[in-house]
Predict the structure.
Amino acid sequence: MSKVWFITGTSRGLGREFAEAALSRGDRVAAAARDPRSLEALVDAHGDAVLPLALDVTDRAAAFESVRRAQERFGRLDVIVNNAGYAQVGAVEELTERELRDQMETNLFGAVWVVQAALPYLREQRSGHIVQLSSAAGLIAMPLGGAYHASKWALEGLNEALAGEVAGFGVKVTVIEPGGFATRDGKNPDPLANGHMARMDPAYDELRQRLGAAAGSQPAGDPAAAAQALLTLVDLDNPPLRVLFGLGFQPMIERAYADRLRTWADWQDLSARAQGAGASARA
């Protein structure tokens, strides 16, 4: 049976590929983008199967209205894809309050508003699949990405909690953690070049140079292949809570998690002291 999708951030990149893949197999798509003119080609190619929506996800009321329009137009909602987002680049010391708040407003709060808008319909249907685009940056952290990491780590925890809350209603949740994909002119986007840049403090110039030399070294994934993988994912009866799209970051993630476990184990004596004498016996 064909599905009805609601996808944010469909003007270009992975969001656009997701929309085109769903439409190409006969599904219907409510395609949301900040600039609806970017959706004209989708409508020209697929006609009434597309509902183009102008949406800035930071506007909670607009998110609710867009989801309402999608449900009214198509009669149901099967797959909600929270894809809209961007990367704020800068050392923690360099970030302004506005930059940090804007990062969280789009990447975290924008996703929350869409989920809150869609859930009443999904609960009533007793079905649906919420797909959250996170990132490998939601699992590990690197210098100069503090704001972006904060937003993605927050999404990871939020969606893990959400999965437990909505499972009883027949609603599934999957967090996708992509590595680098060739979404700009066939190249793996360099976050140091294409992200939103904070003011640059000369104290961090050497660090920027070192990271810049290594940026983009991961192999660039094929967005069209990612879209086909997403189609497979949403057709599963029991999809995973988390899945990496691309294998480039898996060794790095495995090392990071092994290091965390080892550190906690190495410092168990201090952990026990922090609990207090006799606390374990009382527990």
